[in-house]
Amino acid sequence: MYSMPSVIFRAKDILFSIPSTNVESIIQMPDITEIPNSKETVRGIIKYRDSVYNLIDFRKKISLKSLDEELLEFKKMIDQREQDHINWLHELETSVIENRPFKLTTDPHKCAFGKWYDNYKSNNFFISDVLKKFDKPHKTIHGIAKEIEKLKSIGKFEEAHLLIKRTREQELFQMKILFGRIKETVQNHNKERVILFHKNNSHIAIAVDNIESVETIKNVESKDIDEQLLNFTNYNFIVGLGEDKKKNLVIMVSEECLT
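RE: above sequence
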C-alpha cells in the first residue's frame, strides 16, 4: 500500500492512479498551445500561474483514442441515428404513396438506434435522464408502421398520410430535440481534467477523463484480473495493481515514465 494517498483518475472506463507526492494541482483543461512536430502523446503546452507544463494525453499514452476523437465519433453516430429515423418515416410514407409493403423494421429494439439504446449505459445522472426520454417517442414511431399497414389494406390512404404527418410533427420532432440534447449533454459532461506535477525540475501535466478521488490504495495480486487490464501491465509506467475503498480495480502508474 502506498504510504501517501494517490490521485485516482479515469481513462475511458478504466481507473488509474499516480502517487500524490509530487502533484501540485488538479485543474480543468485550460487553453493549449500546440507544439509543431511533437510526439502524438504530447498535446502541447499549457500555462498555470507562472509555470509552463508539457501536456501529455494519457489516453494516447496507453494507445486509446483521445477523448475528443471519441466524442466526435459519438456525435457522428447520433447524427446518423437521427437521419435513420427521418429516412425510416420517409420510406413509410413512400410505401403509402406507392401502395406497397413496408419492409423496414417495425421493432424499436432492432433498428440501429434501438440496439445501441438498449445497451448503452451511463453513470451520469444527466445523461441517463436524457436517454430515458427517448423511449416513448421512439417506440411510438416504430409502432405506427403496423397501423399504417392496416389503413393501407382497407384503402384509407388519407388517414395513413395524416398519421405519418402527425408522427413527423410530434414524435420525430421530439426525437430530433433529444438527439441534439444527448450530444450536448455528453459533450458537457466529458470535460477533461489536468493533473499537474513537478518532478526532477520538470513541470508535467497529464490530461485525463475525470478525477475520481484522492485516497490510499491497497495493493492486490494480478490473478483473476480481467485480461484486458492485464495487457496494460506491458507498459513500462505501470507499477502495480490496487483497489480503492470501493473495491474497484486501479492500475497504479509511475509519473516518472509518463514524460
